[in-house]
Amino acid sequence: MNTAAYFIVTVILATALYFGIRWLVRACSKYRGTRVVACPETGRPAVAEIDALHASLTSIVGLPDIRLESCSRWPLKNQCGQECLASLDVAPGECLVSGVLMRWYRGKNCVYCGKQDEELQWMDHKPALQTPEGELVEWSGVPIENLSMVLKTHLPVCWDCYIAQSFRRDHPDLVVYRPWRHSISGDADGSSASRHL
Length: 197
Fold this sequence. Notes:
Blueprint: H1 3-31, E1 34-38, E2 45-50, H2 52-58, E3 68-71, H3 85-90, H4 92-95, H5 97-105, E4 128-130, E5 136-137, H6 147-153, E6 155-157, H7 159-170
Antiparallel strand pairs: 1-2, 2-3, 4-5, 4-6
């Protein structure tokens, strides 16, 4: 074979490899993520992760073979029949922890500013929580096993207020508290700024 034939074969293989990897990444991302499922044995929520690579590879030849990679009830119950997967077949997106949190935040106002977030940012501006005792908590500090209890007892805090209140808590000597005045043109004593002109 000549150089042109080698080049054409290389381009075809590279293109096939590119689209194959792209398809595999998309298929894996469909099944990735921590999910909250109802354990059929106890009836209580459990945290589970699907074996995303296995599910995406088996979907090449037909329907994916979905199996658990991990569960919050393991290693004690790792030989269970994995009946909880039935709820994942019915509503896979509804079981994702991020989906549960998005539904919980929807329609709720920040406990500090009263702002309602239309579009939550889970990558860089994650919302936070306020405990019943008034402490601020990041989502990374909440064990997923306690998710349903936390959603019942804690209050939503937007990212802006979380940053401001955390700074206020951590550096009280650097914060000057000035209450908001409804009249922008007035001085702190209530007099008008226009008479000083």
